[in-house]
């Protein structure tokens, strides 16, 4: 059992707290278990779980007061899932602020993704993208009412996070965040244009845009802002050049997401995903396309590992 579990997925692909929960159950079955170690492991797990529950309560209150879940009935209301992703990203129990902020970001991304994918007209989406790029609350008069509501929520939430950074670290991150949200909306807009004209991009065209539309770079940037030691140089580096690891991380998340959800997303009116793009480009069957995407994920992981190993210095 232990060997099978260890070989199923690499450790760095797993969520540490879920892995701990699984191992507690397995260790409890062992004849050679140390009762004190087991008791401490259970106590630690329960303490961390209670911290996570408190973080979730805070995020849930924010989401309820924001009101987007009720007002945008067409959009996915998945705050619990959004929070669970942050638990996998932000492991340290004391980093609750990061988990809360990232849950807010994930929730905002989920709603606007659905606006671009299944609800907004192309004219509305072009207007909204322009307003986000301007980052001017006075520009929202051009938007339909439902977009005004979302833009207010986005503008106020992001500005609140930016004010928190300014207050604690003395750095104005609004220009930085504005660019990231604009990049995301422009990527969504390109996908919407493809959908409206019935265009199926090549796989490379799709990846060149989809690694941004998955939102990974935006989420990682927000997580950097909660760090206690951000610098102007660090912000400039991220803003000017997305690093290779951010790009590759985003590609992996996008392709893995496509493997799991592309059929559902196509049914609800989304654009062709990586699987369909490869099928259209190469004439491959769906299973052949899925295998090709899995190989792309594996090769991208290898590049990440190679890059990280190259940075290590061995004596």
TrEMBL record:
In its UniProt entry, the species of origin is given as: Gossypium mustelinum
From the UniProt record, give one GO term of the biological process aspect.
diterpenoid biosynthetic process
Q: Which GO terms describe its molecular function?
A: magnesium ion binding; terpene synthase activity
Terpene synthase metal-binding domain: residues covered: 64-303
Name the UniProt record assigns to this protein: Terpene synthase metal-binding domain-containing protein
Pfam families, alphabetically? Terpene_synth_C
The answer to keyword Magnesium applying to this record is: yes
Report whether Metal-binding shows up as a keyword of the record: yes
Q: Which segments of the protein form a coiled coil according to its record?
A: none
**Alphabetic keyword roster:** Magnesium, Metal-binding
């Amino acid at each position: 059992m232990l060997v099978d579990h260890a070989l199923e997925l690499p450790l760095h692909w797993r969520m540490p707290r879920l892995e701990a929960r699984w191992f507690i159950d397995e260790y409890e079955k062992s004849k050679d278990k140390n009762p004190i170690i087991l008791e401490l492991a259970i106590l630690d797990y329960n303490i961390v779980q209670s911290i996570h529950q408190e973080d979730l309560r805070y995020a849930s209150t924010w989401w309820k007061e924001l009101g987007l879940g009720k007002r945008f009935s067409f959009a996915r209301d998945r705050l619990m899932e959004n929070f669970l992703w942050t638990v996998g990203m932000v492991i340290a129990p004391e980093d609750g602020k990061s988990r809360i902020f990232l849950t807010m970001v994930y929730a905002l991304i989920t709603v606007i993704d659905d606006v671009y994918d299944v609800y907004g007209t192309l004219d509305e989406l072009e207007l909204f993208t322009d307003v986000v790029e301007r980052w001017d609350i006075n520009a929202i008069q051009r938007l339909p009412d439902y977009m005004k509501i979302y833009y207010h929520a986005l503008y106020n939430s992001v500005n609140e996070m930016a004010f928190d950074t300014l207050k604690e670290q003395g750095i104005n991150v609004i220009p930085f965040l504005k660019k990231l949200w604009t990049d995301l909306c422009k990527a969504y807009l390109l996908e919407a244009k493809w959908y409206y004209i019935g265009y199926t991009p090549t796989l490379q065209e799709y990846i060149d845009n989809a690694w941004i539309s998955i939102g990974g770079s935006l989420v990682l940037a927000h997580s950097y802002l909660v760090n206690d030691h951000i610098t102007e140089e660090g912000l400039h580096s991220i803003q000017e050049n997305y690093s290779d690891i951010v790009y590759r991380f985003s590609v992996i998340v996008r392709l893995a997401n496509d493997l799991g959800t592309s059929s559902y997303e196509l049914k609800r009116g989304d654009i062709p995903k990586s699987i369909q793009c490869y099928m259209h480009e190469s004439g491959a069957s769906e299973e052949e396309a899925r295998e090709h995407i899995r190989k792309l994920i594996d090769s991208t992981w290898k590049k990440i590992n190679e890059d990280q190993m190259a940075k290590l210095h061995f004596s």
